[in-house]
Amino acid sequence: MPLRNLEYPAITICSQGIVQDVIDKALKKQFDDFVKSQGKDPTTLSTEEKAQLQKNYTSDLYPGATTSPASLVNVLVSDNPTESIKSKVLTDPAAACVDTPDGCEAPWFGNAAINDTCFANFGKTDNLQRLCEKNGGQRLGFFKDFPYAYEFTYMLEYGNFSTVNRSQFWFNAYMDYEADDILAEDGSYLRDLYIFSFMSDYPNATTIKDPCITANIYDYYTTGYFEYSVFECTPGLQAHELCIREKVDCEELHPDPVAGSGYGPSPPPGTGTSPGTVSGTTQPPGTPQRKKRNVPAVPTPTLDSAFVNSKKIIAEETAKKSRTSYNQNFKSMNLQKSYKSLFEILWYSQLPCFDVEEVTSTSFGQYGMLKHCNWKGVDVPCSKIFTTFPTDQGMCCTFNMEAAEDMFKDSDYQDMVTFMQARDRNLSFDKSNFELDGRPVPEAGRTKGLTLILDAHSDMVSGGTVSQDFDGFFAIIDGSNQFPTTTRKSVLIRPGHENIVAINAVDVKADKGIQMIDVEKRNCYFPDDKLMNFHKEYSQANCILECQIDFALSKVCEYVF
After folding, report:
1. Using an 8 Å Cβ cutoff, are 232 and 210 in contact?
2. Sheet-wide strand order for 473-478
3. Is 344 helix (H, G, I), strand (E, B) or coil?
4. What is residue 283's DSSP assignment?
5. What's the CA gap between 139 and 152, in Å, rounded?
6. What is the C-alpha to C-alpha distance for residues 249 and 247, in angstroms, rounded to an integer?
7. Residue 198 CB coordination number (10 Å)
8. 497, exposed or middle or buried, with CB in 10 Å at 0-12, 13-18, 19+?
9. How far apart are the first and last CA of the chain?
10. DSSP labels for 137-179?
């Protein structure tokens, strides 16, 4: 058979890691488009307008989400999110910051009546467990002129703290034997706090060697008053672990509030918090500075932190809490309604094939992976012959791939692939009318194929997002109607080198008469023998993909990652 009679394969190039700046730009584009849909100009928004529109943006495009879209993307693009968080935390404690609309990620929650404060109830514990501190907060405690007493009691009485109501909870106070008294967090005498009406066993409190302090609502019908008890701690003694902490604002770590990703620089010591850390000031805003028990600021991490066991323990704890937060988010999130919005951002989760004006880049050649394209000895615009296409390694760049509407059945997935490909073409910096003359035809010879210059942008890629132990690209060479998978037919492309990939073609055809034989006996399928869920025709690659999807769907209700 003449070589020209064979079908030219599809060539897919995949990069490694994500460029956070590209995702941030895509998020900003999505937010700006949302603002315009509300009849507003994104360049003239006041601070108050922008804050409100950001809340509306999250609730409308990502309904039910308790974390920011940027945080979601960073979890979804990682092969192993837990390990990615761990590795990042070792060098950047702010890396696992979970940005949420109200600043309180699950199991923490906010309350409109008490500004800038998050709450949590970790159930009944003994005094030594200290789950509040282990989760980045502190036990519930008040001050002499504490402004939120009534709000706290209202929350307790009417069920904001599930299962607690009037029950005893551990109280944040301490014994000062020099003063021969019990002091609140601001150094005032606990017995002088106006919000407390009664203290049991107080005359004997100063003789207690190992004091335990609890509180509960004194009168169910009186809001704003508590009783508290001081007694000798004994093993097995339990009370509710009610916790408070400042709200986490990832915006302080990342200049763009829409794109707060958790991969930016750490804040100056004592200026912010991240899950698993306690800042220098953990009291609710508006309260006086405490006289005692200030928690030291988190030190700036050093390069040798990866070899320090304590840092590894922090990474483990932080990753665990982040995992819990994300699991809670995906349980509450309406994924069906969020699908198109998530898809739009995930489209730019890896290096863009070419620069897309107003979305990924502000200039030609800024972030595009394809720097130069040559077809059969002729220079051609990369944006005219390559498209972005989903693979098992995320979004990659394909040449000669069958159109999405020809490969996939009608679905939101097919619609989004088609829409995003068209948008990228329309917004590319190349405005020429160049088109290939028909489908590519194979010819023999080194100069009769595809020649590319690739840029890995290794200085821009987030290191913690690189999942493979080599530097470079995957190249997938397969049929134009086959879903591209690196596990089937891929080669490695090393940066800084000239890589030559030779292709030998084998064309296998089956006589139609074979189709009369039972499938189990012939042990193979024709394209129309097997009904697929997403693809229009059966192929081995398409079948493997759908099996993987079915497996993922069977587990998605149990695990997020």
Report:
1. yes
2. 386-391, 394-399, 10-14, 473-478, 490-493
3. helix
4. S
5. 13
6. 6
7. 12
8. exposed
9. 49
10. -EE----TT-TTHHHHHHHHHTTSSTTTTTS-EE---EEETTT
Q: What is the rounded CA–CA span in Å between residue 418 and residue 389? A: 10
Q: What is the pLDDT of residue 456?
A: 86
What domains are there in the chain, each with its CATH number?
A: 3-18+350-493 (2.60.470), 20-105+248-266+301-344 (no CATH), 109-246 (3.10.100.10), 512-555 (no CATH)
What is the distance between the alpha carbons of residues 504 and 375, in angstroms, rounded to a whole number? 19
pLDDT tens digits, 388-399: 999 888 899 999
Closest CA to 475 of 457, 496, 450: 450
Q: Which two tokens stand for residue 290?
A: 């405490």
Location of structure tokens 């953990």: 282
Query: Amino acid identity, residue 126?
Result: D
- The closest of 500, 490, 498 to 468, measured between CA atoms, is 490
Q: Which residues contact 483 (CB under 8 A, 6 or more apart)?
A: 391, 407, 535, 539, 541, 542, 545
How far apart are the C-alpha atoms of 139 and 120, rounded to whole Å?
10
Q: Please report, as a single letter, which amino acid is at residue 335.
A: L
Q: Which residue has the tokens 């979305």?
A: 359
Give one DSSP letter per residue of 284-303, joined into a string. Answer: PTTSPPPSS-PPPPPPPP-G
122: number of CA atoms within 13 Å, CB side? 21
Residue type at position 398: T
In order of 57, 139, 195, 209, 239, the CA distances from 205 in angstroms are 54, 20, 20, 9, 19
509, pLDDT greater than 60:
yes
pTM of the model: 0.64
CA 249 to chain centre: 15
Distance CA 538, CA 481 (A): 10
- Residue 121's contacts (CB-CB under 8 Å, 6 or more residues apart) are 107, 161, 162, 163, 164, 240, 241, 242, 243
Q: Which amino acid is at 83?
A: E
| pLDDT confidence bin for 277, thresholds 50/70/90 | very low
| Alpha helices (runs of H) in 483-534, residue ranges in sequence order | 519-522
Q: How far is CA 510 from the centre of its chain?
A: 47
Average pLDDT over residues 308-334: 68
Cβ–Cβ < 8 Å for 98, 248: yes
